[in-house]
Amino acid sequence: MNEEWESREWQKRMDILPKKIGYALLRFHACTALMRFYELIIGRYILCVDGNARLESGSIPGRGNSTYEYSVDVMDKLTRDPFQASLRTSQILHNQEHSPGKVLSTDGKETSTSSELYKQMYTTCLWANIIPFLAELTVQHGVLLYGYGVYYMEKKRRRKEREMSNSDGDEQCKDEQDETEPVDETAYALSILFRSSHLTFSRGVSLIAASVGGAVGSVIYPGWGAIFGIQIGDTSVGALLD
Length: 242
Description:
8 helices; mainly alpha; two-stranded antiparallel ribbon
């Protein structure tokens, strides 16, 4: 009995495994495409710092140098690689030590090298993860709306079929069926709004947790520590809130 059940369950899992792998790959590529799309929109149309822009006489027509430099700085923060940033920031801070384990912070106060590294890498990871997390949130909302749309249309179709089959039959039976499975657009809208708010909150907390993890990982082991810290922070919040 147990062997038959195990065999049947394993077969079910193996049958759906290719589909799950396909969905995971599709989701990964969708997130990557959305990241590039958001980078294009932000760089070309919001910050106007795309590669086709050309400086003329030290400025862009209609824009001041300070504004353009600020836009370039913001774009650089949004597209920075946490791995390389962790290595560079750690090396720079260690070179700036005026005594073992001590550096001057950005506000001119003496602090430990690890504390300053944590503070700078937290800001770096927070900026660098905005676009990836926004892309992931967009994909999750797309899946949510698609699932609700399919469920709503299927339920509406089944109700219509029952109404047609009962058009010449018992009205009381028809009323009972309408009461048991009503198609309430307001309830669907509220459910979608609740799930959407939960997803947005979850991804926002994950962004902060991933930034903290990246900063802690940079202190422990610059470079790969930042990458693993980001993943651990994101996964931990996802496991708690999803």
